[in-house]
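Q: Here's a chain of 195 amino acids. Please give me its 3D structure as tokens.
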Amino acid sequence: MKRKELVSDLVRIRPLGIADIPYIQRLAAAEEIANNTFVPHPYPPGAAEEFVRNARDQWRHDEAYVFAIIEKTSEQFTGCMGIHPLPAHNRAEVGYWIGLPYWGRGLATAALRLIIQFGFEALKLNRIAAGHFPHNPASGRVMQKANMRYEGLLRSALFHHDEYKDEVRYAILRRDYKAGRAAVGAEITKETAED
């Protein structure tokens, strides 16, 4: 698939590039990111470079689509969000993280709305799902604000930091998206050149 950039009032999201590596290396190193995701802590040297290389390869092979989240007002790299299709079932999983200095600004919600638009309009999916740890309710609020519906609690579903943890699950279906499309809020889609 051609590389895409999507824009809302708060953020623009675009495929990861080489220039994002130092930002990822710095922001992903925060322990709070590791506590809420599967990003390793301490974040090893070279991990960001490997992450970007893998993300770009996955995009080229239509295996996954990982975007940089850029705050529009500052033009700062603030985090990453990816959508990982499961073609046999016409569905996908979304995962994301936002750097600590950018928490509480609505950036994750804006980016998730754009990813949902991308999933349903560009990838033609039927279902998009995401999950979070119960100790991170802010991530659940992001999903709710992006019109995803709570689907349940999976007990001891994830092995994280040497222990089994529950996962709270949300999803949105194509029919839900179509019914509330105006609320999703994505405005511009354009193709970008690879760097």
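Q: Can you summarize the key feature?
A: The longest strand covers residues 149-160.
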